[in-house]
C-alpha cells in the first residue's frame, strides 16, 4: 500500500466502513514504516556508536626525587613529570610508595594541569576525592591515584608535585613506582606511557618507631602496659566454598580508648564476607577508617587483600577493666585452594588518644579440597552462600514458561482437525493473551525465589523489628539490622499525605471538567490534564533540586546556626545526625559539600501528590462521564438542582470508578521509588514519630528495598546476599498489596454491576 | 422555614444562568492568576529570590479575596466551615515555612521564600478548598441554592494549575538555559582509564545518547508490546470466560503493581546470569555488552536495550489491551450481527470488521503507551547506565530519564560533568512526553468525531 492511498482515504473524509478498513491499513503501514525506520536507525546507531580507540604513540612518565637519601623526619619533593610527543589534555597514573618509610604531606597539581579538573581517586562515599582526602588516604594505602586534565605541551611537563616526609625509624629503601601511566591526546585517545621507578633511601634514626595514627591522633608516647592483638584461631583449614570466622582479639590490662586494626590476607584465596562487632564491647560502634561504609570497605578489602581500619572505640563503661576479648569478628569465605596468612596490623590508643605499643600474633588459613573440620575455636560455617545454592531464577522461569506453554499447547491441539482453520482468532488471541499471564507468573516466581532466603537469614522476627541499620547508616549498631517496620510506617505516612492532598483536588478537577464546566478554563481542562498526566516522575524528582537550591540551601546550608542545632530537641539520634543516607547531605552530594539536611517526608508527599492529581483526575472524570444520561435526566426532571443531582444520581453511580482511581493512586504512591529517593531518602532507621517526622524524613519501603538490591550511591558495590533477599521480600510485600487492591477493586465492581442490573 | 429556605424553594434558578454568572466573576481571579504567574515566571528568570515570592503570594491573596467576596455575595453570609478550613490551612502552611526557621535559628529573610516554594502552600490551600467543596456537595439538598459554593470547587483547580505552572515554568526556564546545539548533538563519553580505575571525561559532553536511547527504547517497546497487547484485548472482549478473567487479572496486576517489583524481577534475571560468558549470544541479548578498551574483550552491561524494551513492554501491554478492549466494545451490535448474518467466519469478522473498527483506539493506545514508556524509569532503573558505549540493541540501555537520575546517583564523573544539564534533560523528556500526550489527545478527539459521525450515518 502506497502513501497516496492513505492520503486519498484521508481526503475523502468519509465515515463509512471502507474508511474503517483504511484505518487498519494505515496502522499496518505505520507499523511497517516504523519497522523500516527502526532498522535503519539501529543500523546507523550501531555504526555510529562511539568506539573508544587506543592510539599508539611515544610517551613516558618519570619520577623526579629532590634528594636520593633523606633522614627520618626530613621532607623532600617528588615531581611526576610527563613527556608526550604531542599536546596532551589529560594524564593519569597511580603512584605507589611504601607508607612505612615515607609519607605524603601535600599534593599540588603541576602548572600545566593547575587549572583543569584534577581527581585524586574516589572517596569512600563514592565522590571524587579532594586533595586533602587523597593525602590522608595515600598514607593508609600507599597509593595516590592521579587523574588530571589540562593542556600540556609536547615535551616535559610536571603533572603533579608531592611533598613527602621520611618516617623516623629503622630506615630502608623506599621505591616510588607509577602504575598504569597514560596520557589523553588532543583527540581524546588514550596514550599508554612507559615509566621508570625512583628510589629514596631513608637513613635509620634511633628513637621510637610508633606507627602513624591513621585518624590523625597523636602518636609516639608508649603506654604503660603491653597490648597484644591476636587473629584467632592460629590456623584453620577450610574447604573451598566454606566460610570461616576469624576473631580479632585484644589482650591488655591497661585502659584502651580505641583499637584500629588492619587485616591482611590473600584475596585470591579468601574473601571477606562480613565484619561484625565482637562480644568484648557490645554496643560499641564499628567503623572503617574515615567512615567508609561496610560494604565498600569489604569491596576494597577483597580487591586489595587488606581490610583497612577496623576501628572500635571502647565505650566509657569499659574504663578501668583492661581489655581482654574479641572486639571484631570477620567472616571469610574460601574461594580457591591455597594458604592465606592472616596478618594483623593494629594501632591501639589509650583513652587520651596516645598510641600504645602493640605486639602482634597472626594466624594462617589453609584452603584445600581435602580440608575438614577446623580446630580450636574456629567456627566453620557451611558452604553455599550466594549463588551456589538452589537453582537460578532464570532456570526456574524457563521451566515455568515451558510447563505453561506445553499445557497451553496441549489444550490448543486437543480439539478436532479443522478447528484451527475455523477458530484461528480464538487460538491466536489466546496465545497472545497468555503472554502477559506467563510473564506475570514469571515475575512472581523470580521475586518469590529471590526473597525466600530472607526467611532464613534475618528471619521473620528480625524483619518485624523496629530498627533498620543498613550499609550507609553508620549507625550505632553492629552489623546489619533488618527491621522493616520503620519503612512500612514511612510508606503509610507518605501514601497518606499524597492521597489526602491529591484526592479532593482531583475530585474537584474532575467535577469541574465534566459537570460544572468553567468557561475557558473548563474547555482546556481535559487536554491540560492529559498533558500533565504525561509528566514522568523523574521530572518531579528533578524539581527537588529546585526546592533545595532555592529554599533549603539559602535557608539551612547558608545558616551558620545549623551546626549548633541540637538534634535531641526533635528526638533524633545524635550519633546519626545529620543523617548520612540522604541525597542532600554533605559527602553524598557530588557537587557541593557544604549542604547539610534538606529533605522531608512532607516534600516527598507533596511531590507525589502532584504526580497523583493528573493521574487520578482522568479516571474520575471518565467514571463521571460514563454515568448513563438517563440517571441524570430523571433527577433533573424530578426537580432536583445540579448539586443534588451530582450527589444523589451521579457520584453514587461513579463510585466504583472513583474507588478504582483511589486504589490505583494509592498503589502508585506506595510503589514510587524515584521521587522518594530524591526527596526523602532510602533508609528508615527507626519507627518515625508520625507528627514530628513529617518535617523530618521517613523513607518508604519501596525506596529502601530498591537501595538494598542496587545501592543508589554506589551501583558497583557488592551487595550482601541478605540485603538482596530482604529487598526482594519487600517487593513481594508490595506485590501482595497490589494483588489485594486489584481483587478488592474487582469485587467492588462486580457487586456494583449486580446492584445496578437488579 | 427560614427566609433563605423560602426564597430558594420558590425560585429554582436555571442552572445555566448560575454557571454563567460564576464564570463572569471568575474572570477576575483568573486574569489575576495569569498575570501573576507571568510576573512570577519573569522574576524567576532574573533569579531574584525575594522579588519572585511576592507575585506568588499576590496571586494567592488575590484569588482568595475574590473567592471570599464572591462567596459573601452569593450566599449572603460568610461560609464559616470554609473560612475555618482556609485559615487553618494557611496557618499550617505558615507553620511549615516558619518552623524550620525557628528550629535552625530565626532568619527573617528565609521566611520570604522563592515562589517555587509556594507550591506546598498552594497545594495545601487547594486541598482544603477541595475538601470544603466535597463537604458541600455531600450535604446538598434538593431545595438549597444551586452552586452556592461553586468558588470552593473552582479554587482548588485554579491553585493546582498555578502550582503546576510554577513548577514546570521553573524547569522549562532553567532547562532552556542549558540548551544548546552541542548538547543535542554530542554524546556523553569518557576516555577509558587504562589503570582500570578512574575514567576521565574531557571535551564536549551532551545528551545525545539519552535522546537516541529514549527513541530506540520507545520504538522497541511498542514493537514488542503491540501484538500481545492487542491479542489480550481481543481475547478478553471476544471470548469471555474463566481464561479471560485470568488474562484480565494479570494485565490489571501488571498495571497496578509497583514498577519497582518488575524492576527487581528484571534485575534478578540479569543477576542470575553472573558468570556467563559476556560474549555469548543470550548474554548479549539480555545483558548487553561492550568492548573493554583496555583488554579488547567483551564485558557485560547491566541490561541491553532489547531486554529493557521487553520489560517496558510488560508495562504498556495492559494499556494497549485496555484500549483494544474498549474499541471492540464500542463496535455496534448491528455490525457484529450483520457480519454473522452475511456468513462471515469469526476470523473474517475480526479481520475485516472488528479490528478496523477498533484501529483508532489501538492507535491511541499505542501513543499513550509510547508516552508511558518514555517516563517509566523505575521499571528499568537497575538495568540502565549512562550509555557511554553507544546506543544499539545489544548495548547497555540508557534513556533520557536515566540521564536525569544519573546526575545525582550516576557514575561520579557523569554526575560531575552533567549536573548542570539535569533540568535540560528533564525539559527534553518533558517535551517528548508532552508531544506524545498531545498527539494521543488529538487522535482521540479526531476519532471520537468520526465515531459519532458513523453512528449518525448508521
Describe the structure.
The complex is a heterodimer of chains A (758) and B (458). With 758 residues, chain A is an alpha+beta fold. Chain A has 17 helices and 27 strands. In chain A, a hairpin with a 4-residue loop joins β9 and β10 (190-192). In chain A, α5 (393-413) packs antiparallel against α7 (424-451) and α7 crosses α17. Chain A is elongated. Mean pLDDT of chain A is 69; it is low at 1-21, 37-57, 123-127, 207-225, 369-391, 472-478, 554-571 and 578-598. Chain B folds into two domains: 3-177, no CATH class; 185-457, Orthogonal Bundle (MetI-like fold). Chain B contains 18 helices and two strands. Chain B has helices at 3-10, 15-46, 49-75, 80-103, 108-111, 118-138, 150-177, 181-185, 208-238, 242-256, 259-272, 281-286, 305-329, 333-341, 346-375, 400-409, 412-418, 422-457, and strands at 289-291, 298-300. Chain B has a two-stranded antiparallel ribbon. The two termini of chain B are 54 Å apart. Classes of the chains: A alpha+beta (758), B mainly alpha (458). Chains A and B meet through α2, β4, β7, β9 and α5 of A and α2, α4, α6, α7 and α9 of B.
Task: Describe the secondary-structure layout.
The complex is a heterodimer of chains A (758) and B (458).
Chain A: H1 3-12, H2 17-48, E1 59-65, E2 69-71, E3 75-84, E4 88-96, E5 102-109, E6 118-119, H3 131-141, E7 143-152, E8 155-166, E9 172-185, E10 190-192, E11 194-195, E12 198-203, E13 227-232, E14 235-238, E15 243-252, E16 258-264, E17 270-277, E18 287-288, H4 294-304, E19 306-313, E20 323-334, E21 338-349, E22 355-356, E23 358-361, E24 363-367, E25 380-381, H5 393-413, H6 419-422, H7 424-451, H8 453-463, E26 468-469, E27 481-482, H9 485-514, H10 519-533, H11 537-557, H12 601-625, H13 629-637, H14 642-671, H15 674-679, H16 701-709, H17 721-757
Parallel strand pairs in A: 1-11, 2-12, 13-23, 14-24
Antiparallel strand pairs in A: 1-3, 3-8, 4-7, 4-9, 5-8, 6-7, 9-10, 9-12, 13-15, 15-20, 15-25, 16-19, 16-21, 17-20, 18-19, 21-22, 21-24, 26-27
Chain B: H1 3-10, H2 15-46, H3 49-75, H4 80-103, H5 108-111, H6 118-138, H7 150-177, H8 181-185, H9 208-238, H10 242-256, H11 259-272, H12 281-286, E1 289-291, E2 298-300, H13 305-329, H14 333-341, H15 346-375, H16 400-409, H17 412-418, H18 422-457
Helix pairs in contact in B: 2-3, 2-7, 3-7, 4-6, 6-7, 7-18, 9-10, 9-13, 9-15, 9-16, 10-13, 13-15, 14-15, 15-18, 16-17, 16-18
